[in-house]
């Protein structure tokens, strides 16, 4: 095998065609609603970590568990990257009619791209939070929230942070 690229070989690199049942797809006996997605800071230095919080509410009549997933998308990377990348997830049990605020951290290394070494680049990013992947054709009964953030500073190798 001489071509080691993942283009067209895994759901992360399918281009515009999404898989029928993507990662995280499933059924539940209750419904969930996401709200109040907050990224802090919205503009961060190249080596800084991002703090994320989101509120998850069980809007159904039964106890339920939801797998909250965070995905990162590079808006204009200098090299090929996945359409989006899973950067955090957590299974949360929520009683009916209750809400819980979840906090996550996205470290700088999760924004790194491979250019003969792991490299951090400035630019615009979008973070997605929800019970499924962004832009799914086969929809689960929960939405996906999104928020943008910007990384500033000069590009540098990851080990330089």
TrEMBL record:
A Pfam family reported for this protein in Swiss-Prot or TrEMBL: Fn3-like
UniProt GO BP: carbohydrate metabolic process
Family matches, as InterPro entries: Cellulose_deg_GH3, Fn3-like, Glyco_hydro_3_C_sf, Ig-like_fold
Keywords: Hydrolase
Classification via Gene3D superfamilies: Glycoside hydrolase family 3 C-terminal domain, Immunoglobulins
Assigned EC number: 3.2.1.21
Stated family: Belongs to the glycosyl hydrolase 3 family.
PANTHER family: BETA-GLUCOSIDASE (PTHR42715)
Protein name listed in UniProt: beta-glucosidase
Organism: Penelope pileata
UniProt gene name: Bglm
């Amino acid at each position: 095998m001489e071509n080691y690229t993942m283009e067209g070989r895994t759901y992360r690199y399918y281009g515009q065609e999404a898989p029928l049942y993507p990662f995280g797809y499933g059924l539940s006996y209750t419904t969930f609603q996401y709200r109040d997605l907050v990224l802090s800071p919205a503009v961060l230095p190249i080596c800084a970590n991002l703090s994320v919080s989101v509120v998850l509410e069980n809007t159904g009549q039964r106890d339920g568990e939801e797998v909250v997933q965070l995905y990162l998308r590079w808006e204009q990377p200098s090299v090929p990257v996945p359409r989006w990348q899973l950067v955090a997830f957590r299974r949360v049990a929520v009683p009916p009619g209750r809400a819980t605020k979840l906090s996550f951290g996205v470290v700088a290394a999760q924004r790194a791209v491979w250019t003969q070494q792991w490299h951090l680049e400035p630019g615009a990013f979008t973070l997605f939070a929800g019970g499924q992947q962004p832009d799914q054709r086969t929809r689960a009964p929960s939405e996906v929230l999104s928020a943008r953030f910007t990384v500033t500073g000069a590009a540098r190798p990851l080990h330089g942070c």
